[in-house]
Every structure is written in C-alpha cells, then in structure tokens.
Specification:
- With 648 residues, the chain is of the alpha+beta class.
- It has 18 helices and 20 strands.
- β4 and β5 form a beta hairpin.
- It is globular.
C-alpha cells in the first residue's frame, strides 16, 4: 500500500501535534510554562483515569500527566533546576510558543490539568501515522483513503475542566470546518454524539471528536472513536481488566510523568493477521522477545533524579532475555575512573549475539544477509546449516565453538584516559567466562590466522603475533597506519575470554593499582539508588562525558574567529544604505562589501559590534551518572534506570 503525506487539519495541528509537542516540553517545566496564568485548583486526579476508555485489545497505551500542580511536576522542576537544565527548557518553551503563537497556547489551556493519553488500536496506525506524528501531527493516510477509514490511533484528554475543554474542542472543530470549506456533521453512536469533519482535500485529514463522561476523544475518523466509546460505556472490556495490565501497573511507581503499556501479544496477533505490515515489514516475529510479552513503563521524578522503570511478563516456555540474578565481581577488577561499564550473565545463552553471527555466516556463505529459510525448511535447521557451512571458512563453528561457550559473568568496561594525547591510554576490556577454555582458545587461534592472512601483504602496517601471559597464549593485532601503535589483545586466561585495547588486558589480569570502580564513591552512591539484586547492570559516568564535551566545545569556540564584514572598500560609501544599494546592483563586482556572505553589505564597518556580554556560565555539574539494573523473577523481567542528579 502506498503511503503519502497529508497535512493535518488545524485542530489536529493544535491538539494532536502542537498539543503533544508543547505538553512534552511543559511536562518537564512544571508550572513555569504558563507563568502568570491561574493554576488549576482541581484535586490531583487518580493515575490512569484515561484507561477506562482504552479497550483491552489496544496495542499501545501511553498516558502523560498534564497536571501542573502535581507532586511529580513540582519535583521534575526542582530536578531540572538542580541539573542546570532550566534555561534549555525555557528556550524550548519559547520556541514552541513562537511556533504555536499565543492563540494556539490559549487554545491548549483548557485541555491541561489532568491526563492525556495516546492509544494505538490497530496496525493501521503504522501506515497512517508517521513517527513524527507525536511532534508533527498526524501523518499520512493512504492514497484514496476515505473519511471513514480508521487510522488506528486516537487521543484521550481528561482536562481539569471537562466542560470548558469540550466547548473549546467544538469551537476549534468549527474553525477547521470553516477554514477547509467543509461542514461539521453530528452523528449518534450508541447514544454518544460524534462530531466530525471530512478531509478538506486529499492533502488534509478529517477530524472527529466525542465526549464520554469527563473524557474527550479525538481522532481523524469517527470509526476510530467507536471502540473507545464502547469501552468507556462498559460494553467492551477495558485494558484495566487485563490481568497483565493490573499486575504490571502494581509493580511500578504509582505517581509518574509518563506511563506506557505495550501489549506484545496483541501486536503479534495483529501482525500474523496482516498482509501489509507497514512499519513492521522487516520484523521476524520469532526474533522479537517483546512480542511474547506485555510491558509497562513509567518515567517519574524522584529525589535522586529522573527514573525510568520497565516490567515485562514472559510467555510460557519463553526464555528470559537476561540471565539469573547474581552477585557481580567484575566491577572490582576495572579501574576507578571507568567511564562506561556493563555486566551480566550467560551472554551466549541470551541470544544477543545470535542474529549478528547468523548475518555473518550468511554473508560468508554467499547468501543474502537476513534471508529467511526456503519454503518447507525448519528455521532452526536452516540456522544450524548456515553456521556449519560457514565453519568450513572459519575453521570453527562460530555458534557452538564460540558464542555458546560464553557462560557465567560477562562485562565490558571503557575508560578514556588521555585519549587525545595517547590513544593507548584508553582502557577498554571485554570479559566473559567460558565453558571450555580449550575450545575457545582453539577458535581464537584460527580466528587470528584468518586476520593475519587478511592483513598480510607488501606495505602492510598491521601485524598479528602471539605472546605468553601467565601460561596462556595471547594474540596481538597491532596497527601503525595512524602513526600511533594501536594494539588489540585477545585470548583465554583462567577460563575467561579477554579482549582488550592497548594495555587493558594486562591491567585486568594483573589487577588495578589505582582503585576499582566498585570503590568509586560516585558509583557506590548511584548504584545504591537501584535494586541491589539484579541480573545485569549498566553505568555511565555522565559527569565525565559532559566534561569532555564541554572541553572540546570550548577549544573549538576559542579557535574560531568571527568574520568581520568591514572591508576597506566600504569606506567609499557614506552610509550602509549606499553600500547596500551598490552591492544589490552588482553583487559580483561588489562582492568585497559582503565578507561574511550573509547578503548584508558592510554591516560591521558602519555598525561595529558592541562588546559581547559574556555568555551565562552553564553548570551541569549536578548531572553525575546514568545507571540501569535489570532482574528476573517468576516470569517477570524488571529494569530500573536513573539519571542521577546530585543534591547540593
């Protein structure tokens, strides 16, 4: 089905696109977004009050709090101030305000104060709504689509003042009808009035609105509102009655900035019944774990920082995408100044490397990467055949002799050191336990031979050698093409596969002499905010990243000199106006009058720039780290993430 762009109606632009865009900004800015305007005095609504209109067959449900006086909004504002991000939010609000204009902001106010939800009810949304739909309006409907064709996408608004919001919704719809030269029509669906306008042209969307109790429903067609109306009336079960939904929601924080629910099994069922998959065209159902599960997520503000938590159920007999919970020790063996660290269990069994390995095998076998099994061939049989065939070129089976051997704790650590001065000061090490050290060592020896034969030749700057480390063979790949000796070591030491950059491998085996990451006070403080029992973790020293980026940006700014538009030929004219007239008459002959190529002649000659006031000193020092832990228990997989913002 061909999909082409259509312009959203003014109502869609104001509420579906402009509203969501602005709300996502305002969401993180708290009441400052509408400073000087009266705040709602309405009591805080119950979380997920919009869910009563969401059918249990919905594919995706996303709810955002729009209540400026809520505890979450206020805490989010505090965190942004603490992080030094308030000025960026203010700029974003100003830009959104400029794009939306004052009338649009006024139009949005009646819809605030409660909760706003986005509901995807069918895969039609993958064809009718672009990814930009959340920030740029409803995207395209298929050519030839009629006004009644469902788009599988709707908006639910619970405002602080439902009557005022409904009045504004009708007003905006009438304005759109007048602008597009169409007539609004009211129809009755099971006792609920649905007001709609058809597309004004092939390049515009229609719009339909309805009110059920305190909820306002919005979409492009009346047909998209019908399942929501039925659900709100109780004739169709709501998503709140689904066992997974209730259980998953109970596992998460009950106060939030944003809540999401992904019904993986409903998506899988819809995909299997759909010939034209739209945005899902390239998905292999068996290779996407979330299609066997239901997942809920929350973004919420907490005293230590912003948190993002997820919880997923697993279908019966579906292996968890992560290993069992464990007590990790690799953080005790990597340097204290590690910038990025990740660890987990049983990498080989996780399936994380299987797809990449299969693509490599298919490429070596002369098949199209990503090709599916021939008709009548079992998928697993086909995969095994691909790895076996590729082993004739590798000299070993990449799946059974390498990937499947990766058991126990694994991890990766990265520290940048003085990387600009000495690339080899970078500390980068990958570690994994192995089931059979001899099997993996043999595979690595054959891999080293392949690399050696690939780089051999006259004039080659790359060498492949071996050395001994504690009785183990270490393969060394060294390259001099950059002028610096870039070195990568790999081998099996004490039943661990080690791959290290520079001196990282020796440092790991010999033990760090400057303290470990586990002893780092910041690492300890950040990880203490997350569940101690986990099956995997990730840590990023954001403060160090900001330091590097700021230093680099500062050096670039210092080296950049502004181009002054003040050529001596400007002195031939009495005023800038005269110089501009001469330039406009013959820009080629008078090109010297515009040194900075902005079309304005001699601007700095006649109006020397005033001394620039120093830019405001930005301070992001409170943003310290981003960390995640994941865990599994009784068929449920959890992940907990925090952007840690240090208190003063």
């Amino acid at each position: 089905m061909e999909v082409r762009s259509k312009c959203p109606s003014a109502w869609s632009h104001r509420v579906l696109s402009g509203g969501l865009t602005l709300l996502l900004v305002v969401l993180m800015a708290g009441a400052t977004a509408f400073a000087g305007r009266p705040a709602s005095t309405r009591a805080q609504s119950a979380p997920l009050s919009t869910a009563v209109a969401v059918p249990d067959s919905a594919l995706v449900y996303l709810a955002m709090t729009a209540e400026q006086t809520s505890t979450q909004w206020q805490l989010a504002t505090t965190l942004l101030d603490r992080a030094g991000l308030s000025s960026f939010v203010d700029e974003a609000i100003e830009e959104a305000s400029a794009d939306a204009n004052e009338d649009d902001l006024t139009d949005l106010e009646p819809f605030l104060g409660g909760e706003i939800a986005v509901v995807v009810t069918s895969l039609a949304a993958t064809q009718a709504v672009d990814v930009t739909g959340l920030t740029g309006g409803l995207a395209p409907a298929a050519e030839g689509e009629i006004a009644g064709d469902p788009v599988g996408f709707a908006l639910i608004v619970q405002a602080a003042d439902p009557a005022a919001a409904w009045a504004k919704a009708q007003e905006l719809l009438e304005e759109d009808a007048l602008t597009q030269g169409v007539t609004a029509a009211a129809t009755d669906y099971n006792g609920v009035p649905v007001i709609s306008i058809p597309p004004g042209s092939e390049s515009e969307d229609g719009t339909a609105i309805a009110q059920v109790d305190d909820l306002i429903l919005v979409s492009s067609t009346g047909a998209d509102l019908e399942p929501l109306i039925d659900t709100a009336a109780g004739t169709t079960p709501s998503i709140t009655t689904a066992p997974d939904f209730a259980m998953l929601q109970a596992e998460l924080n009950q106060e939030f900035l944003l809540f999401g629910y992904i019904n993986g099994q409903a998506i899988s069922t819809a995909l299997e019944a759909t010939e034209e998959l739209g945005a899902f065209e390239s998905l292999s159902l068996g290779s996407v774990p979330f299609l066997d599960s239901s997942t809920s997520v929350v973004l919420w503000a907490d005293d230590p920082g912003f948190r993002f938590d997820t919880v997923s159920t697993l279908a019966t007999n579906t292996p968890a995408p992560i290993g069992e919970n464990f007590d990790g020790t690799l953080n005790e063996r990597v340097p204290s100044d590690t910038l990025f660290f990740i660890d987990g269990m049983d990498l080989g069994a996780s399936g994380a490397l299987d797809t990449l390995a299969l693509l490599l095998a298919q490429e070596l076998n002369g098949e199209e990467a990503g090709a599916t099994p021939p008709a009548g061939t079992d998928q697993q049989v086909y995969i095994d055949q691909q790895f076996e065939q590729a082993s004739t070129q590798f000299g070993f089976n990449i799946k059974t002799d390498l990937i499947d051997q990766l058991v126990g704790e694994f991890g990766f650590a990265l520290g940048l050191g003085e990387f600009l001065l000495d690339p080899n000061s970078v500390n980068a090490i990958f570690v994994s336990g192995v089931e059979s050290g001899a099997t993996v060592a043999d595979a690595l020896s054959k891999l080293a031979l392949l690399i050696g034969s690939g780089v051999a030749g006259e004039g080659s700057t790359t060498t492949v050698t071996t050395r001994d480390l504690d009785g183990s063979v270490i393969h060394v790949v060294e390259d001099m093409s950059s002028g610096f000796p870039i070195k990568v070591d790999f081998g099996v030491v004490a039943d661990q596969l080690l791959i290290g950059f520079g001196a990282s491998l020796d440092s790991f085996v010999g033990g760090t002499t400057t303290g470990s990451l586990a002893d780092n006070p910041q690492y300890q403080a950040v990880m203490a905010t997350l569940p101690a029992e986990h099956a995997g973790s990730m840590y990023l020293d954001v403060a160090r990243v900001i330091e590097i980026v700021t230093s680099f940006s500062s050096s670039m700014s210092d080296s950049a000199e502004p181009i002054l538009d003040a050529d001596t030929s400007c002195g031939e004219f009495a005023t800038q106006v005269e110089a501009q007239a001469a330039y406009d008459a013959d820009a080629f002959a008078q090109s010297a009058l515009d040194q900075n190529f902005d079309g304005i002649a001699c601007e700095d000659f006649f109006s020397p720039a005033a001394a620039a006031s120093p830019a405001a000193e930005l301070d992001f020092s409170a943003i310290r780290a981003l960390a995640t832990v994941s865990s599994t228990s009784d068929g449920v997989v959890n992940s907990n993430t925090i952007l840690y913002i240090e208190a003063e």
